[in-house]
What we know:
Blueprint: H1 7-15, E1 18-22, H2 31-39, E2 45-49, E3 57-58, E4 61-62, E5 75-78, H3 82-96, E6 103-106, H4 113-121, E7 126-127, H5 132-138, E8 152-157, E9 165-170, E10 183-188, H6 189-194, H7 198-205, H8 213-220
Parallel strand pairs: 1-2, 1-5, 5-6, 6-7
Antiparallel strand pairs: 3-4, 8-9, 8-10
Helix pairs in contact: 3-4
Amino acid sequence: MSEGREEWLDAAINHAHSIHILGAGLNPERPAHRAVHDLNGRGWRLVPIHPRDAGNSILGRVIRPEIEPGITPDIVVMFLAPARAQAAVMSMIVRYGSEHMPLIWLQRGAESDELIEMLEENALKYVKQDCIVEYITRNNMQRNPRAEAYPWFRQISDEDGSGCSVWQAFEPLQDGSKFTTELEWVGDLSDLENSQHTIARYIRSLGLPDEQLVDTAIRLA
């Protein structure tokens, strides 16, 4: 797209609560990692997605392994190779259908003719040949009101090999402690409220009468 402003795109960005960033892991040299830094402080809930680095965090934003069932993103930014981007879009089309699909933002190098054809055939909104960081920066965009920063939670296997699990709670924007065991689940309070993952549903089931979910999750840690 050109470097001009697009009214529909401005509206989509301004109305978005969360920006999911596929490919954002711990490597500081990767553009997806830098995007979290560049968008930090502009008011959106930033959600890094990276299977290998999941459970760690970037500026206190916990990295998820995937977009789990039950989570409906507003904007999905793809710092992926074309084949992986196409597979991710196909998965979302199956999950959400055309009506509930997020805005797909293809960072430069993520698009392919096949992927664009798929997006067009399904009448999906997407952006190509532009960078979300550059678009937001050059148009001086900020989310107002700012998205609330949520506490986040992580379940890992116990280090002693007993087969037990360890549930952990972290403050909003707190970087997580290092871990060496298997990651079983991770997400912030919004994920915990909406995810259909078995562990998230189990934690929700443990609430006491009149207890808010955040208090349940902290109590169990």
